[in-house]
Amino acid sequence: MLFTGNFSKDDLAKSKKRFYWVGGIMLVIGFLSLAMPMLASFAIETMVGFFLLAVGFGNAFGAYSALRIGDSPWQQAFMAFISIAAGVIFLIHPVAGVMTLSILLAAYFLIDGVTKIVEYFRVKSIGGSLWIMLSGILGIILAFMMWQNVFTGAAVIGIILGINLIFSGMSLIMLGRGCSDMSKKM
């Protein structure tokens, strides 16, 4: 396994390609998000609205099916109602949805940043792993910036998401490069 400390050349070669591909995709999406932050923000908000509707209708179907066989699915019916209502609100009032997402995204960046810093200590023997630490620190900084600027506009989500994706993509590419260097030494 890659993160257990036992590294084989095959594991490193497989991981290197994956790190390059995922990192490259993250870079492209990050630059697109920076180029069109308003579009990125409202695209994310709209997708979340549709996902909430899908979850709500799935819960409603599950509650209906349970009711037909005699169960009492009130919790599932309640969650269906909440999910559908939230999805409709996101789609009808996109600004409110974007503001809600900005709060959630700030929480995500904080958790993601802390997780990356913890992960750095697991992979610090790999060249390029310092980028994981830097990406984690940046995630925490972005979380606090976003929390302070919740009402500054929809573009904040697209910009912060773009920056985070660019640094995360670079960190994976650099980690892949470190895997390449490490596999040559073995």
UniProtKB/TrEMBL annotation:
<keyword id="KW-0812">Transmembrane</keyword>
<dbReference type="InterPro" id="IPR005325">
    <property type="entry name" value="DUF308_memb"/>
</dbReference>
<keyword id="KW-1133">Transmembrane helix</keyword>
<feature type="transmembrane region" description="Helical">
    <location>
        <begin position="47"/>
        <end position="66"/>
    </location>
</feature>
<dbReference type="Pfam" id="PF03729">
    <property type="entry name" value="DUF308"/>
</dbReference>
<feature type="transmembrane region" description="Helical">
    <location>
        <begin position="153"/>
        <end position="176"/>
    </location>
</feature>
<dbReference type="GO" id="GO:0005886">
    <property type="term" value="C:plasma membrane"/>
</dbReference>
<feature type="transmembrane region" description="Helical">
    <location>
        <begin position="78"/>
        <end position="111"/>
    </location>
</feature>
<keyword id="KW-0472">Membrane</keyword>
<feature type="transmembrane region" description="Helical">
    <location>
        <begin position="20"/>
        <end position="40"/>
    </location>
</feature>
<protein>
    <recommendedName>
        <fullName>Acid-resistance membrane protein</fullName>
    </recommendedName>
</protein>
<feature type="transmembrane region" description="Helical">
    <location>
        <begin position="123"/>
        <end position="147"/>
    </location>
</feature>
<dbReference type="InterPro" id="IPR052712">
    <property type="entry name" value="Acid_resist_chaperone_HdeD"/>
</dbReference>
